[in-house]
Every structure is written in structure tokens, then in C-alpha cells.
Amino acid sequence: MSLLFTPLAIRSMTLPNRIVLPAMVTRLSGEDGVVNDDIRARYVRYAKGGAGLIVVEAMAVHQSKSGPLLRISSDDFAPGLADLATRCHDAGPGKVVPQIIHFLKISRSGWRQTVDMLSAQEIDDIVDAYGTAAARARACGFDGVELHMAHAYTLSSFLSRLNPRRDAYGGTLENRLRLPVRVIERVRASVGGDFPVGVRFLGEECIRNGYTPVEAGPIAVRLARAGADYISLSAGGKFEDARHIPGEPLYPYTGYSGDRCMPGSNYPDGANLYIPEAVRACVRAAGLETPIVAAGKIGSLELAEKVIERGQGDLIGMARALLADPDLPKKWQRGREEAVVRCVYGNVCKALDENFRRVDCTLWPKKLGQAPESEDTVPPEWPASGAELTAEYKDGRVLVRWKSATDNEQMYGYQVFRAEGADAPLTHFASTRSASSRFEDPRVIGGETYSYALRPYDLAGNRGAMTPRVTVVVPIEHVPAADPVHLQIAKDPGAVEGCAVVTGR
Amino acid sequence: MSLLFTPLAIRSMTLPNRIVLPAMVTRLSGEDGVVNDDIRARYVRYAKGGAGLIVVEAMAVHQSKSGPLLRISSDDFAPGLADLATRCHDAGPGKVVPQIIHFLKISRSGWRQTVDMLSAQEIDDIVDAYGTAAARARACGFDGVELHMAHAYTLSSFLSRLNPRRDAYGGTLENRLRLPVRVIERVRASVGGDFPVGVRFLGEECIRNGYTPVEAGPIAVRLARAGADYISLSAGGKFEDARHIPGEPLYPYTGYSGDRCMPGSNYPDGANLYIPEAVRACVRAAGLETPIVAAGKIGSLELAEKVIERGQGDLIGMARALLADPDLPKKWQRGREEAVVRCVYGNVCKALDENFRRVDCTLWPKKLGQAPESEDTVPPEWPASGAELTAEYKDGRVLVRWKSATDNEQMYGYQVFRAEGADAPLTHFASTRSASSRFEDPRVIGGETYSYALRPYDLAGNRGAMTPRVTVVVPIEHVPAADPVHLQIAKDPGAVEGCAVVTGR
Questions:
Q1: ipTM for the predicted complex
Q2: Rounded to two decimals, what is the model's pTM?
Q3: Cross-strand bridge partners of residue A100
Q4: Rounded CA gap, B232 and B230, in Å?
Q5: CA–CA gap between residue B281 and residue A460 (Å, rounded)
């Protein structure tokens, strides 16, 4: 029996399964903060796929200059939000909650407002803004509300161990908790006792002198006692170690803490799981049953089930995996895991956000702007003569080529599997779009042997047969070419194929 | 059957068990680099305790100015080293290998020499120096040699993803590996085929754009193929994110990567285990049986056994736990885990090193300068009237007091257990020396309830009865006092009691 597809009740809402879409920036809204067609299409698509809980990307509780960002700061935004909630409910079984956020000011000089610059009145205003926005979320027909206390934003900066205030709102853990607790209490008073209120905060700051899971445990206990109905844990994403690009505002995912926030292909699967594991243990030891959302490169059914089985989390957060294939929950539930279009954690989506571009998945068919939809079940086929897969070393990289596969409906892409060695097990290394019938791999070491194999997949994710493996020896005198993937990202992230190793320099 | 006490053969040496003392700075040697009485006493003490492999602290392969540091850079140092090897062999069953290191220059201005400043000749000299030093290690009677390729030192800086060279020694992974591979090959040629050569390197750099376990896997494979007989994995400890204190040379353990290198009480046990797990899987997939040393806050028998059982490592590295109680291996093997004087990971030892002081364990009896020795088996006893444990809130902290326990031989200290809440399970929170009959806990949150209990222990680590728990409610209007532990460390790390929360600010 699948733990993942066991419903979970959180106050007045019952999630049909344990799969959560955490809030993920899309840059699809305009500067006006109003829900538009692109936003609607994106979230309706997620709803169709069957995720148990859909957290709509952060929307501001206050009026403050920013780039494209949804807003929930006045009743002007309510009709669009109410319509979004209705459409998502009509499209699928999942529950829908907006994430609401307060952030401080930043400028292109690299300057940023810090929490010690806030007056007592400004702090009270934050509490008011959260309370009003949460009531508005309820009035709009959402199933609950999530308070953003993670990453580089206001409430997270209060919780931070680097909170520089020396009054009742900073210094000790108790003081750092004061504003977040006030916000939860106000939100609870404002939405009533039955409406689910979640909190997303950092289980580890991943910066020098930042807090770690051992302190996140008591923080979670306190937030739960104050009224949080679920705790969603993230990591890192701080301003303190961000790299400042002259002329650009600080982007809090450019430092090591940003790497840890969205662990890419250079991290093992589930690398952050020690965080929810420790926090959940502390919450349970305090006698609380608050569900914990674990996240961070959990992309396979096997790992997701294990997380719940081992008690590392009650809910599984997956942003990038659901961006790549919103139908993942439906496919997992139907026993069709093989038909999932697997995220390769190349973090092209992260690079798009960092470059202030619309956040799409690089695996999607070009120009579609959305994950494709298909209920087809017939897999692609190789030509009668086979894929004729070859791999040769050329110009400082391995060049893999093949004959195109065909599909009854439409081809989508190829999964590239690689192994280090002639006999080592193949693992999913990259994916490439169907228009390609070649793949270049610059991430090789002179003197080593590499094996490659390929599987084609169609729009519905149906995967064709694995090719036989081909092997290539990289000459010891290998002179590597400049890494084209990295250069492409710098120039035009949207042009990059889904490669597992795009984080290379 | 204990996996931990299963012998392991590595070329000509057979380790009696899987417990490894990784190289740990002591600051016990003089500036002359010669083995002295303090060094001898420290390592003989470890040998007596029964660790399977004792890695003697890093000793320089070259002549270069530094603080107190052992040297193996000329035959002048050989008699002292040979004597050290003999004494350790006489004292216990463990094998003994020196860690040999090359480092670059640093100055008090914060300037540091980087690998791109090295000429081709200087690189050749590094290869020569390692080869000669390794042969000397063999001649001195050590059982093997360990090459230091971790943290902020020369070979690690070549392996680093931030290696700035643009010639054959930098840029791609292959180029970054070139010098480390040359060093291993030279060492192998110089010591012969039967002599064990280990390598310690970083499984994750824990800095922005640094490499991660996914790249450490292929690095380990390459180093093993070049001749490394075991791979010992560390994390972090880099110059790149170190904090520069004006007038002091950079110390590479002051940044976030330093926190990760020696995860303190603010990290869950075994927080770094995803690193050796991923690297070992890659090494095994390549068909290699090279043993992997896992490390990072593994201090309990249960966790150590699990690590081996789960395939996260073949050997368990424990520096701080063995510093606290060198007899840990012997006690574990005899089924006397309860008698281990448990490290609280307060990292006072790390702070001592950072302040250029002799590295002792703060749990040791004052002025002993060494872990005590006793074979006594009679535990301490509370007075007939009981411990009379009390906990009260006073002056911004919880003050815990009790009546002293007594012992047939000599009291050593008290373990302080704490729980957040009146019923939550108690966990080991701090230890305090026997002269104290009070403990101050400033790490509390207003409005929360805390429970405390105590166990006394004697010189042999025999633990007396746990007191009944006492409970205290911290008033909601709690105004925390300045954190005395942090202030004490800044002023005089040696004066600090062994507290699990010394990393607080």
C-alpha cells in the first residue's frame, strides 16, 4: 500500500495525496501583480496532474516595488485570485493555497534594507498586512494559506541567527521568533480556527553562523504551537552569501546557500533529508503531530515513499520535478512511473529566474511554454534498422549520435544514460529534445571509459526501448573544450538542452 | 556480530577494527617540528584505547614557515618519528600512519599564495617532496602513509573546482586531478607495492561553485586507480569563505565550510553521511573495493554500526569523540558503551585551534592535559539523600543545582540531560566537570518548559544513576542574559565547560 497516496487531513482540508508543489517563482505575472492567462494556465496544468497540495507562488502582502510578482495586498487582486482558485479546483483533486510574502527593499547598488531598519510601526504594519492578506486568501476560496518565512525575505530574516536587532525582535531565539509568532497568531485570528495555515521556513540557513536543524526543531515547535498547521522546510537561499553583480539587485540564490536551496545534478538525491528528519523528530518529541513537508531533489517514487516510511517527512515537496512533468502524481498513482518525464536537476529553471526571465522547463517542447498533455499510451519506436547509436571522441568532447525515433503521436525527447566505465551501471545523465539526434558531453576525463545508451519518449512520457550501450575511451591527452553548456546558460538560458551537468563552469 | 570489530586488510596492514582516528591538529609540537613528550603522550594514549587506525596529525613534507607543526621533511626528523611509531605499536593493537601535507604561504595581511602562483618547477618539487617524505614514513616504521588532499591545503586547492590555473593543472576535472595523481604515483613508486597509501580529500567543498559528492565520486575513482588504498572523506574547511581577522593569518575553518568540516552540536549526528554514501556508491559502481572512511559527528556505537551496515562507509573516522575518550574503542568492544565519556560536540577543541592554543578536550580534568586512565568499574554514587536536583529560572537563564556525587576512585563529571517540555525524551545536552555542582543554561525560550536530569561519571567513565527529572517553566517575559558561553570562549576557550551549545552567539 502506497503511503504517498494516503490522504492527509489538515484542519478543514483533506489532501488526496502527499505530493506538494512548493511555491516556485514563474515570472509569468506582470508588474501589476494581477493573475493573467499565463499564470492561470500554469497552475491549472499542475492541478490537472493531480498533486495533493498546490502552493501558488509567493504573492506580496504589501505594496512595494518589485519585478513581476503576484499580489494579494488589496481587494483589487481578489477577483483574479478567486478565479484562479476556482479553475484549479475544477481541474483536479488537489487543494490550493497561496504563499504570502513580505520582503524588504533592495537596490541595484547591492544595498538592501535589513530588519534592524524597521521601526516598531513598520513591524506592526507587517503583522497587519499578513492578517489582512490571509483573510483575503480565505475569501478568494483558497483552501488555506502558507506564510513565507524562508530564504532571504522579511520573516526569515527575523528568524535568522544573523538577525542584527538588539531589541525584543532580535538577539535570542525567543526574540527572533517574536514577529513570526505574532504573524501566525494574527493570521489565525483573522482566518478562524478551521482554516489551514502553513509555514515554510528554513531548516538550515546554510551560511556562516546561520542556524541549523538543531535550532530549526525548536523553531518549528514554536511556530506549530502558535498555530501553524503544517511546516514546509527549505534550506539556504540567503542574501548573506549572494554574489553581487554590479548594476543588478542582489539575488539570494547565487551563493553556496543558493546551491543548497535547489540542489542540482551535482548533489545526490535527497541530499537535504537530514534537515526534515531532525526537525520532524523534534516536533514529534514535543508531542505535536504537525505534518512536515520534506523537499530537495526528491524525484523518484522509491525515494518519496522511503522518506515517508523512514519518518523524514509526511509530505513530499517537489517543485522542479512537477515543473518538468505536472502529471507525475497521476502517473505514479497509476503505476506508470516509467512514463514520467524526469527532471534532470540541471537547474536551467533556476538560471532563468536568476536572469529575470520567464521560468519554463528546458525539457518542454520549444515555444510551447507549458508541459505538453497527452493520454496516449503507445511508446515511440526506433527505426527498423535500430538507433544506430555511436559515441566518438571529437574536439574535446564525446559526441553521441543516433537515428531519430518515431511516435504514433509526437516525439518529445531522449533520455541519455551514461556510465563511467564499460560495465558500470548506466544512470540517467541528461535529456535532450526530439529535434536533436546528437548529444555532446564535455564532462569527461582523459584516460577514462564512458558508456552511453538512449531511450526515446513521447509527449505522454511513454518511453521506447533502451538502445544497446556504446563505449568510448577518452584519450589520455584529452584537451577539454570550453564548457558549452555553461557558456550557453550565461548567454541564453532558454536555449540550453536539459543536461544533468549544466552547473559546470 | 559487530561489523565494527571485523578486521580489515589494506595491503600489508590489517586493521583490528574499523575505528579510525583521523588526523587532528594538536598544537603540541614546537616550531622545530620535532616529536616531543606531549606528542608522544597524546598518540600513545590513543594507541592504548584501541583505535584500529591512528592517523598522526599532518606533518609537513617541505620546509616552510608555519606555527607549531610536525615535520617529515628531512632525516633530522626521522628518529623522533620512528620512536613515536614504536611506542604506539607497543601500546596497542592499532596501525599507525602519518598524514603528510604540503601547504602554501599565508600572511597576517590576509594574503595567501594560490596554486596559480606555482611554477612548473615548484610543482615538480611538491611531487618530489611527497615521494621522499612517504619513503621516510616507511623507513620510520609506520604502517602506511596518508596523503593530505583535503581542506585548504595545496593538493586540495588543485582538486578544487575553484582552482584558478588555466594550464594542464587547472580548469577541467582531469587537469585538476593531474598533480594529485602525479603525487600518488610518485609515492607509490617510492614506497613500493605493498605499503598502504591512503588519501584524505573533500567529498564536498561546501563553498560556492565548489565541487560536491557527485564530482567527488569520479575523483575518488581516479585517486584509487592511481594507487590510493583507502579514501578518507572530509568536507569543507576552505580559505574561500574564511573570515579574515585583521592581523591574523586566514584560518580556513571560520566560514560556513568550517562549520561543515567539524559539525558541532548544532548539527544532527552524522549530518555529512550523504557524502561518503554517494562517493562510495560511485567507487563500487566502478568495480573498486577501496575502503571509504566516513566521518562527521559519528559518536555512538549504534550510528557507527549503521554506517557500515547501510554502506555509507567501511571505516568510521572519529576525531573529537576519541579526543574526549581515547578508550572508546576498547569500551565499545567490551560492551561498555555506557562508560564512554561522550563528546558533546561543543567544538571547544576547534576554538582552541582557531586561537592558536594547545588542543585539549574541555571535558578532561583541568590541568591533566590528557584523557585520564582508569580500569575501575565501580560507578559514582549520589549521597544517601539523593542528588537533590533543582532547576530554577534566574537572571535570564535556568540554573540547575545538585549535591555532589562521590566515587570510590575519583569523580570526573556530570552529564546534563535536557528535554524541551515536561514529558519529552531527555537527551544528552552538555557535560560539566566534577568540581561544579551547578549548571547554567542560557539557551531557553520564554514561555517554554524544560526538563533536566543528571548522571555522574568517574575517571573510568562509569556512570551513576540518572536523577529524577526536574522541570522549570521559563517566564514568557524572559529577558535573556548575554550568552556567557560564547563570551567565555572568546576570552578563554580553555575555561569553558563542555556544553552542547557553545556555538551560540
A1: 0.81
A2: 0.89
A3: A59, A147
A4: 7
A5: 32
